[in-house]
Amino acid sequence: MQGQDDIVVGLDIGTTKICAVVGEIAGNEINIIGIGSHPSIGLRKGVVVNIESTVNSIKKAVEDAELMAGVEITSVYAGIAGGHITGFNSRGIIAIKGKEITQNDVDRVIDAARAVAIPMDREVIHVLPQEFIVDDQAGIINPVGMAGVRLEAKIHIVTGAVTSAHNIVRCANRAGLDVGDIVLESLASGEAVLAEDEKELGTALIDLGGGTSDLAVFSAKNIRHTFVLALGGNNFTNDIAIGLRAPLADAEMIKKKYGTCVSRNIRPEEMIEVPGMGGRKPRKLPRQILGEILEPRMEEIFTLIKREIHRAGMDNAIASGVVLTGGSALLDGVSEIAESIFNLPTRLGKPRGIGGLVDVVNNPMYATGVGLVLFGAKHHNEKKFRIRDGNIFNRVMNRMKKWFKEVI
């Protein structure tokens, strides 16, 4: 059995499924050694609406992952999404006390940049440095050791509703798990599916989940913009259920088996069988109807995301194109629709840069879970979100003590 310190677990708490992915740190490589998945009951559009149902789903997914990996899971990195997530850019500037920039100066300038008014009902989830500027010299990734008199930082701050973040942690705690950190799901997916050159040149990552579609714009190796759209795979299922007058469970099955987003690619003679509701007989309908239902909805999602990219001034920051991931990205014709809307090269994003059970997780629906493992491996020694031990208050106290030391 592997040592507990070498194990990192990602817990993707999604609207349609809860997925636990177990990774083992082996030198510089991350090996996937276990995976557990269970239908998600208790979430709506990425937000917990039923604690008990969510806890039970987490327990079952974690038990399956433990069985496959042969380890006991005690701590996880949990993903967060939902329409309550907002991201914005900020900047701060400080004077350098000495001639050489130290890590303490970097921490101070980041604190200055994040000193913005945030409502009491919101929690800061991520503070992501984009670049540093030393005496008007821009584009610096790490200024430690450089000489200068003025240090400036540009950062991206991601916030979420306090209640939503704490409910996710509470569900994990009630399932017997500590939470190492809460991670924005689109950021985690970027860790798993994007190549370094894509992050450098500029990419729009779109995670098409069950309840939400998450956008993350990467450029110059850093995240530049985040956005969560409260539309996802469940909207496709509802559209099919209404359009074909079929039960939701059957609509989901029809979507997965026959769903396509490009109606013109379907032969007129292709037929599908639709189960009847309330004891009615099944009906046979042309498969082309599915395309006519799904195509407008997919176009709507991509059009709204494109509008957000334009609003944020990121049109020129995604030169390498668009990467689609998430379970809904498996629908036939999604890449074709995306290319026509964005007028950019588009590809399907699958987890990469891992070892172990590669064939098992080689699917866009596992991108977030694998990304959480990769994120956790990078920050394995920090363990900064141990709410179960009451340390949400310790985080605040430690930050205050740090400020007092700097003042004194």
Short descriptors:
19 strands, Dna Ligase, domain 1, 11 helices, 408 residues, Nucleotidyltransferase, domain 5
Please describe what this structure looks like:
- This protein has helices spanning 51-69, 103-113, 162-174, 185-193, 196-201, 233-244, 248-258, 288-311, 334-342, 367-378, 391-407; strands spanning 7-13, 17-26, 29-39, 43-44, 47-48, 75-80, 86-95, 122-134, 137-140, 150-161, 178-184, 203-208, 213-219, 222-229, 271-274, 283-286, 321-325, 346-348, 355-356.
- The protein is α/β, with parallel strands linked by helices and 408 residues long.
- Among the domains are: 86-159, Dna Ligase, domain 1, CATH 3.30.1490.110; 196-349, Nucleotidyltransferase, domain 5 (2-Layer Sandwich), CATH 3.30.420.40.
- Strand 1 (7-13) and strand 2 (17-26) form a beta hairpin.
- The radius of gyration is 23 Å and the shape is globular.
Which topology of the domain at 196-349 does CATH recognise?
Nucleotidyltransferase, domain 5
Shape: globular
List the helices and strands in order: EEEEEHEEHEEEHEHHEEEHHEEHEHEEHH
Low-confidence stretches: 383-393
Q: How many strands in all? A: 19
Cα separation of the termini: 48 Å
**What kind of sheet is the major sheet?**
6 strands, mixed
CATH superfamily of the domain at 196-349: ATPase, nucleotide binding domain
CATH architectural label of the domain at 196-349: 2-Layer Sandwich
Q: What's the gyration radius in Å?
A: 23 Å
Strand proportion: 25-35%
Overview in brief:
This protein is of the alpha/beta class.
